[in-house]
Task: structure prediction
Amino acid sequence: MLAVQDLTKQFGGFVAVNRVSFAVEEGEILGLIGPNGSGKSTVFNVVAGTLPLTAGSVRFEGKEIGGLPPDQVCHRGIARTFQIPRPFKRLSLLENVAVSAFYGQNRDISRSRAWEQAEEALALVKLPTEATATVDALGAAGLKKLELARALATQPKLVLADESLGGLDEAEMEQAADMLQDIRRQKGITIIWVEHIMGVLMRVVDRVIVLDHGEKIAEGLPRAVAEDPRVIEVYLGRQGTAAAAAADAARPS
Amino acid sequence: MTGRRLQYAGLAVLVALPFVGVPEYYMHILVLILIWGFVYTAWAIMGRFGLVSLGHGAFLGIGAYTVALAWNLLGLTPWLGIPLGVGLAVLVAVVIGYPCFRFRVVGHYFALVTLALGEVVRLTIVALRDHTGGSLGLTPNRYGEGTSLYALQFADKEVFYVIALLLWLAGIWIWRRVDASMARFAMDALSEDEDAAASVGVHVTAQKLRITMLSAALTALGGGVYAQYLLYVNPGTVSGIGVSLQIVFAAIAGGMFTALGPTVGAMITIVLAETLRIAIGTEVIGLDTTIYGVMLILFIIFLPKGVLGGLIELYERRTAGGAGAMAGKREVGGGA
Result:
C-alpha cells in the first residue's frame, strides 16, 4: 500500500533520516519506534507532506506522493495526527472534525454529509457529538482522541498516528491502543503508529520498524524485534525497562 | 424570532427614511455611514480571520480613482468604470496576496506588506498628478444637469441614500453567506494553525487568497460608489495610511466578528468625527485621529470584540445565566 524507498531528509548539514526503506501492507498496523531523536517523526512528517523530502521516493497505492503538499497527501487518503494535539480552539468539537470531513476527502461532499461524518468520527473515538461540546472541556486523553477523530473524518485509507500515547496514564494508554485496533477492525484502515514507548504498542502492532540515528536498525514481528540485540542495545541504558516490558508484552501468555 | 422581527423593523425604518424628509445634512451622514459601513464590513470579512490588512486604502483608492479617471479620460460610464476598478483591485490583491500566502508571510509581516501597499497606491496617485490631479484630488466631470443614471450622478441625496442602502445590504448579505459557509470554519481553523488545517485537506493558500480577493473587490466597489457620491476623490481620503488605519480602527471598534459590528464602527467614527468638527472646528488638526489612536488601544485591551461584539456577549451571558456556561466547561471525553 505504502512503499518508502531510500527516504532521506537533511536539515542543512544534519542528516535526520538516512536512506530508510519500508513498506506497509493494507490492513496492517505497523509500529515505528525508536528513541528520541531517532528520526521517526521526521519520516512521518515527510510522508504526510508536512516536510519536503531531500531524496528517495514515497509511493502510495502505486503513485508517487513524495513532495506533495499536506492537503494533497490528505486527499490521496493519508491522514495524520499530531504528537502535541493541535485543536482549533475557535471551533467547537464538532466543527473541528467537520472541517476535516468537508475538506479532507478527494471528492466534494455535501455539507450535511460532512456533519454526519464528523459525528461518526467523534462517536468512533467516543467523544461527545453534541454541537455544544467545546474543545476547552477536553483533557489530555480527549485531545488525543480529537486528533484521531479529525484524521478519521477525512475517510482515510492510511492513518499516521504520532505518539498517541504521550502524556497518558496507564489505563488511558491501554484504551488508546484498543481504540486503534478497533478502528482497524471496523474500518479496515491501515495504521502506522509512531511511538517511543514500546510497551503497549508491542501488544497491538503486527510488525515493527526500529529507527536509531536516522537509520533503520531492525524490522520484523514485535517479539523478534524486542529480542533483537541491536534494539536492546539502543534501548538499554536509556530505556532498558521499556525494552524488558516490551519483551514481556510480546510474549504470548 | 424577536431578532428576526427586529431586523425587519430596522430595515423598514431604513427604507422609509428618505421619504419622511430627513434634513439634508443628516441624510449625508447616513449615506456616509452606509458606504463606510460597507467598506469596514469588507475589511472585516478577512480581518476576522487574522488577515489583518493595514492597507485596504489601496483597494479603496483603486476603486475610487479608476471610476473617476475612466470617466474623465475615457468617457467610460461608472457602470463599467466601477467593475473595472473592482477587477483591478482583485488583480492587485492576487499579485500581493499570492506570494504572501504561498510563502507564509503571516501576522505582523503580512500587516507590514499591506501597510506598504496602501502607501504605494497613494504615492502612485500623487505621482501621476498630470492625470489624477495629485494631492489636490480629482473631480469627476459633471454630466448634463447633474442627474443621470448613465453617469451615476444624482443631485438628490435621497437617490444616493437608496444606492448606499442597497450596497450596504449586499455587504451584510455577503458577510452572512461567508459566515454560514464551510469556508468560515476552514478559515477559522487555518487562522489558528496553518499546518494542522493543511493536514486535514484545507488548501491554505487558496482559502486565504479567495477571502482576500473578495474583501478587495468589495472595498473597491465601496471606493467607486464613494467617488460617485462625493464627486471628488483625494489620495489622502481614499488611500494611504490614514484611511487604511481608520478602516481597521472602525471595524475593531464596532466588532469585527459580528455582521453589524463594522457598521456600528462606522457610526461611532463618523459621528465622532462630525461632533469634533462642529465642536472645535478645524483648529486642532488631527485631534480625531489622536482620539482614534487612544480609543483603539483601549478597545484592544478592554473590548477586543468591539462595541457590538461586547454587547452581544453581555446579553448572551445575561440570558444564558450561570448554568449553561458551567455545563460547557465540564470535563468531557477524558476517560470513557
